[in-house]
Automatic annotation (TrEMBL), chain A:
This is Na+/H+ antiporter subunit E. Keywords: Cell membrane, Membrane, Transmembrane, Transmembrane helix. GO terms for molecular function: monoatomic cation transmembrane transporter activity. GO terms for cellular component: plasma membrane. Pfam families: MNHE (PF01899). Belongs to the CPA3 antiporters (TC 2.A.63) subunit E family. The chain crosses the membrane at residues 6-23, 30-49. It is found in: Cell membrane.
Automatic annotation (TrEMBL), chain B:
NCBIfam families: CPA3_mnhG_phaG (TIGR01300), PRK12674.1-5 (NF009316). InterPro entries: PhaG_MnhG_YufB. Keywords: Membrane, Transmembrane, Transmembrane helix. This is Na+/H+ antiporter subunit G. The keyword Transmembrane helix applies. The lineage of its organism: Bacteria, Pseudomonadati, Pseudomonadota, Alphaproteobacteria, Rhodobacterales. It comes from Pararhodobacter aggregans.
Length: 163, 143
């Protein structure tokens, strides 16, 4: 019954919050419209997102957000230093294959987005069987180290969150 | 809108974040000029925008808080939309590059030799979760 009207409770909650932030007010009419959006959009789009992803530990998701934010700031500075001070011929770009242990599409999407958002690496492709991500690194004298860091720092946490 | 008189701490903070944001934006644009090929060039703007735009957004939040005494949430939303959309544009550019400039031989081999999705006829679009592992040497690997 509940799943019929609320196929994705978290998505509904996010939509309500997003709409309220967007109109920047807590008046009754905004809240009513936010709830309507939060109910209708998940119902209209449920065909494209049939499975309900399980968020096993929301607390760890918050921890993950802060880890990623910290890394974005840190790696932004690293990339800026490389771009400004390293001569172009000393930059060693590399393709890196990162084998995946996570299986759920949501976890893989989150991992791929994280890789792109943290500077210095961009996720470029998924293998045909969905078991590896192709990553391009701006400066990778040691590609294996970057692969291991992605696996231990991000994938391990995402596995705990989603699976 | 007239520029409000801010307390000193707010002026310093707003200035600091504007300068930091501007610097990273500048570095990102400089990287576009300097880096040698499309894939390395992709790194400079995608990165610089995260901190460059982020700095301007933080400055904007501090300004509105100090000038009008309210917390503005639009900046958080802009951050959210950027975080969701910028990996997708980066992925599209990378995909185009892979299709036009790369061959399977120039990329590292994925585990199980199933090939990268860009080079196989039916990529992982039909759902990663219920997909069977592809046997090595499966016929859908095209060069």
């Amino acid at each position: 019954m509940l799943s019929r009207f609320l196929p994705h409770p978290l998505l509904s909650l996010t939509l309500v919050a997003t709409w309220l932030l967007l109109v920047n007010s807590l008046k009754l009419n905004s809240i009513v419209f936010a709830v309507i959006l939060g109910l209708v959009i998940p119902m209209l789009t449920r065909a494209y997102w049939p499975d309900m992803p399980r968020l096993r530990s929301p607390l760890r998701a918050i921890e993950y957000t802060f880890v990623v934010l910290y890394d974005i700031v840190k790696a932004n500075i690293d990339v800026a230093l490389i771009v400004v001070f390293k001569p172009a011929r000393d930059i060693r770009p590399a393709w890196i294959c990162v084998p995946l242990d996570v299986r759920s599409p949501e976890a893989i999407t989150a991992l791929a987005s994280t890789i792109t958002l943290t500077p210095g690496t961009v996720s470029c492709d998924l293998s045909a069987d969905g078991r590896a991500i192709l990553v391009h690194a701006l400066h990778a004298p040691d590609p294996d180290a970057i692969r291991d860091e992605i696996k231990s720092r991000y994938e391990r946490r995402l596995k705990e969150i989603f699976e | 809108m007239p520029i409000a008189d801010l307390p000193l701490w707010a002026e310093i903070a707003v200035t600091f974040f504007l300068v930091v944001g501007g610097l990273f934006g500048l570095v990102g644009s400089f990287g576009l000029l300097k880096l040698p090929d499309p894939m390395t060039r992709l790194h400079a703007p995608t990165k610089a925008t995260t901190l460059g735009v982020g700095g301007v957004l933080i400055a904007s939040m501090i300004y509105i808080f100090a000038a009008e005494g309210r917390v503005s949430m639009h900046e958080l939303l802009i951050t959210l939309f950027l975080v969701i959309t910028s990996p997708i544009t980066a992925l599209f550019i990378a995909k185009v590059h892979i299709h036009m400039r790369e061959k399977p031989e120039t990329l590292p081999e994925p585990r199980d030799a199933s090939g990268w999705a860009s080079f196989t006829a039916d990529g992982p679009a039909r759902g990663v979760r219920d997909r069977q592992p592809v046997e090595p040497g499966a016929p859908d690997k095209t060069a």
